[in-house]
Amino acid sequence: MLVTVNEYQRAWNKVRKQSLSHSTYSVLLFVSCLDVDAFVSSIMLGSLLQKHLILYKTEPVIGYSSLRESFSRLESSIKNVFLIGCGSSIDLEEYLGLDESNADLNIHVFDCKRPWNLNNLFGSQLVICYEDCDIKQFDRYREAYDFLANDATTDNDSNNSDDTRFQGSQSQKSQEIESTQSDRDPATSRRKRHKSERQTYTEVLEAYYDQGSHLLSTNAIQVYTFLAMIGETSLRMLWLAVVGLTSIEGQYPHLYNLLIPTLQDEMRRLNHANNSDASSTIQDQKIKLKFNFNTEPDYSLFLLRQWCLYESMVHSSYINAKLFLWREDGRKKLHKLLARIGITLQDAKESWTHMKPTLKRALKSKLDSVSEIYGIEGITRQGVIRHFGLAGVMSAGDCVESVAAVLETGKAEPLLRDYDGQESERGTSDEEYEREYKELTETWVKNFWIAWDAWDDFESMKRGVEKAKALQSAVVTTANYIFDKNLPKDLQTFRMVVVQDAPDIQVFWNPLSLQRLANWVFEGCAELNSTNLPMVFAVLNEHKHTYLVYGIGGRKPRDSQQTESLSDFNKFGSQFQETAARINARIRIDAFDSAIIELSREDLPRFLEALDTERS
């Protein structure tokens, strides 16, 4: 069921009515475990439920199999299930096994990944899909869906249909031929028109599903819009929405640039309302101090306020891509840039906290003065900065990096091996493989709760920042190795990077870390090559004899004037599955992002060859 912005209040009223009569928890939040955007969105929804004294439970899930397993244990008291950061792309009624016994259960979906599975939108009364974008785009798809659904029902009754992607083949029955010419001609005309309409509508839905995965918003913005429509906005919720949006900036910079002005306007509105409220209580004043954030000059640099200028430049994907810092001449160019703006290496390596105030104040104008010369026009921008009282300052990007690092590593040291480093001669048995995977998912769930406890405490976030520094250093080292060895190779339809042996390779056996490294290399390749190719990035896990594979849809460099276009669409998810099925490759697809798969080591060469053929 499609629920639009104007219907949010009614949906919330129903949840409240169903929940307040229960003495035990009646709401369950399933949250995508390795997703910063989903993480902050779950905090927002949880805070709303808590404020209204609705008992609820949050359960982080790794992928669709763990979602189904957890759902199978659903308690009878649960009346409303929220899926945050997952659920949009599969037929939830079929996958979760919903039937008449679940008639009083509602599945609420806050998932910004598109395309929707249209069975969720138009074919289910149990699944409630929240959509904050223009719904007119769905008019044609609803028309096509309804026609084919009704056509399938009619054909089941008459047993007279052609094969379509929405129904199995049916036996064809002969038509009566003993009729008058006047009776036959209208019937023939109707059948031809009906067949033509069916073909047209089938093509409409095929084109919809084949467009590839993409984002039109973020989970946090969807949830914040929901809160705004029911009158529950606050500075705390707005900060979380900003962090959620900032988490996609590296992968979807143009979407970030499109959406951030809306949140900045909301910041000004809420700050003005709070500052002019003379009746605010002491508690309100404490909240204002705790969530004191605003739009300030910021930079496309890594953890600048938590590090030093030089290290934040060296560890910035933007500066690395623009200046080619993996090359010796690129590093020399960085030193010349600093000299040109009058900052010595000694000053640049001074921690930001202790850097000369005059240099900090002049940094934006200095960088702007040389940005065109060095092709770094996007290095300065307006960002969102939060002041944690006397404790310190963090940008929204700093918070994203801290939370992401904790989700990846928990309390462990980021670069410590979690195995003895010995490679098995015969690989891992299926039973051992499943055991190790279960242990890994349990670790990620523990990390989720560590991040949950840390996100609003400055000292805990600082510990996350230190982990983020270690992880980013591993990214820089490994990315430099990849470019030094010329590992990116262009095939006919995509760019391929296969990493079999590299420094700190075990760090990238985690999907979050893999995406971090892959997007870094992708951004460098986009600047290095004029050809805008998508990328397939694979990292070998010698312990398990598998590759973790990530497909990135093609996109232009961050500074290009590109808005939404086909290069923002990622078709690898469906193509991975089709290719694996065609060549009978052993894969595991369990992430909510279908463009991340685990593939057996021996299958990778023929998988890549078949994938290239499939796309050409």
From TrEMBL:
InterPro entries: CDC45. Its main location: nucleus. Residues 152-161 have a biased composition (Low complexity). One of its GO terms (cellular component) is DNA replication preinitiation complex. Residues 166-180 have a biased composition (Polar residues). One of its GO terms (biological process) is mitotic DNA replication preinitiation complex assembly. Belongs to the CDC45 family. This is DNA replication initiation factor.
